[in-house]
Structure formats: structure tokens, C-alpha cells
Amino acid sequence: MKNIDPTETNSWQVLKEHYNNLKKFDLKEAFETNDSRASNFTLVEDDFYVDLSKNLLTTATRDALVDLAEECDLNGAIDSYFNGSPINVTEGRKVMHTALRTPLHKANDHNSTYIKQALESKRKMFEYVDKIHDGTLTTYGGNKFDTVVNIGIGGSDLGPNMIYDALEAYHNNIKVHFISNVEGDHVEEILRKLNPETTLFVIVSKSFGTQETLTNATTVRNWFTDRVNPAAVGKHFIAVSSNVDSATAFGIDKENIFQMFDWVGGRFSLWSTVGISVALGVGTQNFQELLEGGHSMDIHFQETRFKNNIPVQLALLTIWYNNFFKAQSEAILPYTQYLQKLPSYLQQAIMESNGKSVDRNGNPVDYQTGNIVWGEPGTNAQHAFFQLMHQGTKLIPAHFIAFAKAKYHHPDHHNKLMANFFAQTEALMNGKTEASVIADLEKTSLSSEQKNKLRPFKVFKGNKPTTTILIDELTPKSLGKLIAMYEHKIFVEGVIWNIYSYDQWGVELGKNLADTVLNDIESQKSDGHDASTTALLMQFYSKLS
Ligand code: F6P
User: Fold this and answer.
1) Boundaries of every domain in the chain
2) What is this structure's pTM?
């Protein structure tokens, strides 16, 4: 990939000037003066209808942003991404999670070793899952498994956990739990729900060296052997890892270790054998459909002109707000409880990838990179933080995501949910003028003094940008497509910001720091730290005794 400082490009200068001219841009007026604004800025890809028209942009903005993508050689970068060039340069790795989504029936169309490796590992996983479902593989006592516990953290937890929850309507009779945090109380609360005799434990760790996961796995294994039989570990514990030696040393049978590859980053690994808990909980057919959805977004991303390319346009808008409007964050608002974990999943995917301050030449950047993402499902979110979105001082571009069809037939609920979904983006754009506040107040019996006092508090400035993503229905396929859409958005942002999106040195540092403090805690030592940390450690020890 080329190392191009985006701020040195012509299009960046054009965008800067354009931004200065656009400061007075009024969304409401833009719709009033242009009948085709909605259709001009809407992208349709099969079951995805992505409406960008309620954003602070004109066709000139879009053209300049597309020029920026071209000047930063996004086309060349996309080729490198899909052809397996080692674009994770600081770790010397390829970034090939897209290979994991190649459908089984395309196996023979491809010669790529990676695609073949991915398909082979997937085939082994599907065989195993099917055997658990049909009862060919049984518990130590010869019964069917009815529970699975996924033990992993970060990418080895967030993706599978989010997908499993999102596909609740597709759950089969195997219940899946997730243990991630090293907090003993969290582990205990899950263990209390389990029957060890019918539970399968899946230890997911690419490195098989992560402190949290190994601590949790060891506690769980001890709990299990105390209740069943040490000889049962082979049947009840499996692993997903690229470190076969450590997984074997832990006591996992070699044939029960599902391979992860170093060419797939943890936060992009849900498509791999890391998804085994999901496949166990929703079945292999639904898992395949998830992959198909991801693959169809890969094709859209690779083959669609930037102007109509959904991930490209979403990424360019993020850059527009982040670097020109100086917006610091972006809200992700799914109007469905099924996607409750989507914002936290995306926090890792987006913020671990693009939270970088050194460019691809190794120089500190002097422009903003990775934005902050956060969110909650609507309508709950409306009763929590929407006040700040409507009347606060910050610019928060937001993604509103909803599904036209609900899973179950409750039209009264669904109509109300969708009414809120549409009404909010309209209200954020239109706001409420002083004149309309006055008109409303006139209808009340308040005194004119009270009316005057209240007036400023009831005005909404409006002009708040939103993107609406309306999808036909939440299915494994549309979910796969949605996740892949965000993955490619992350990639495009990283290319334009000229940073490396696929390493995570900041998190690695945290892992080492905790080890040092752990040694101190184990020997109740408090010196050798700053005064604040020393006092905190002493306070902690005093509470323990
Ligand atoms: O959070 C840092 C990280 O390295 C993630 O990228 C990864 O998903 C997570 O730790 C867990 O790592 P592992 O799968 O090796 O246990």
C-alpha cells in the first residue's frame, strides 16, 4: 500500500475550502430546494437501503471525498487487501479474513492456499458441530450435550457473543454462555447455571497465552474435574487456537483443536473456527448463511464504484465529520434488541483498528484518526442519551439501523418501533424553530412571562446528521453483510488516514503492565509505583485483611 499523507493531497485542500463554504449548510433547506436529494444520496444493494441524504454534504462534497479516496490509492489498497499482501506490516502478517467467507461451493474455483486452508478448517468445524447435534459425539456419560461455554476475550469473545445474541430467533436446543472477564464473580455466576455432565467448553484464544482466558479456562477445568472425572476433559474441552502446542499442553486432544491462522486478526475472526460456539448454537446452515452474507458484501465492496459503494461512502463520511467538522464520535443505534451487543463489538473492531497516532511511515500524524463509537438499541437509547444528541453542544453523526420485518408478528409493537426510528432522524434534522415553539406555547394557559422563560429551552437547532440503514430482515445473511460492511469501512478509513489498522500495540502494552502489578499484589508490595498507585494498593490490601 502506498504511504500517502491525506492532508497533502489536492482533494484535502479542496475539502478544506469546501468545508469553509459549507459552514452554513442547512439540511432542511437542502431538501426543500432539491427534490431528488433523497434518491441522489441513497445506495441500494439488494436488501440494504442506505440513505445518506440526511448528512451534511452536497454532491460536491461527495465528489471531493471520492477524489480523496482515489488520490490515496484506495483502489490499489483494496487489491492488496484481497490478494493477501502482508498489509499488517508491523506484525508481518496478511489480512485475509475475507477468505474465511468464501462459500464451500466455490472451493474449487480458487487456488489460493489461504482459501483452501480456511475451507478445510471450516469443513472440520462443521463436521464436529453436526456430530454434536446428531449425537454422534456425546458427553463422557454418553448423553447429548445441551450447553456450550465459550471461554475467550476480545475478538475471541465479542464477535461470537454479539452474533449469538443477534441470532436469538435461530437458537437451537444448545444453550451457549460466554465467559470473558477475568473477574472470578463473572465465572462463578456462569458456572452456577451449568450441569457439568452435559456442558462442552470451548477455549478460544489465538495465542493461547492470554492471561484472562487461561485463568478462566483453568478455573473452569478444575471445577469440572472436581464434579465429573479428569478423564472426561478430552470429551468436554475443545480449543480454537493457532498455538496447538499450548492447547495440547492444557489437556485438549489434538483432534479437538480447531485451527486459527495468523493471517486473521482476532477482531475479524468471528468468520473462522472462532465462530464454533455460534455454529453449535444456531446450526451449521445458519452459520454458512452468515458467511454468505459477508461474502456478498465483499463482492459489493470490490466491484462497486466508490460513488455507490456502501462501505466506501460510510468511511468517507466518517472522515468528513472527523477531520473537517472535528466531530469526535459516532453513534451506532440499532433499532432492535437483537443487536444490543453490536456497539461494543464495533468498539473493538473500530477503535482497536484505527486508534493509531503514527502514520505508515512511522511519523506522528498531525490530523485526527480513529473516531470514538458508542451506542445502544433504540428506543431505549431515546430515553437515555438522545437529549444530548438533540440539544447538546456536540456534533454526533449517527447510524440508525433497522429491519423492515420483525421476526414475530406484533404489528402494534413493530409499527411503534419503526415510527420512532423514522421520527428521530427527521427530528434531528428538522429541529424545532423558535416560531413553532411560540406557536405551541400560545396554545397553553401559561402566563406570557412563563412562556417567555420557557421558550429558549424548547428550541431544537436541528441540522444533526444521520445515516439510515434500512434492511429487509435480520437473518444470518443480512447480519453477515452488515458486519462485513463495517469491516470494510474500517479498512477504507485506515487507508485514507495512512495508518496501520491491523495491529494493536496499545493493547499489548496493557497486558505486560498488569503482569508487573500482579507480582506486587501477590506479595502485597506497594512501593516502586507513583504515589497515587502506591496509596491505592495499600488501600486495597487494607480492605482485604
Ligand atoms: O485485545 C487484544 C487482543 O490481542 C485482541 O486483538 C484479541 O482478540 C484478544 O486480545 C484475545 O487474544 P487471544 O485470542 O490470543 O486470546
Assistant:
1) 6-72+304-430+465-497, 103-287, 505-544
2) 0.96
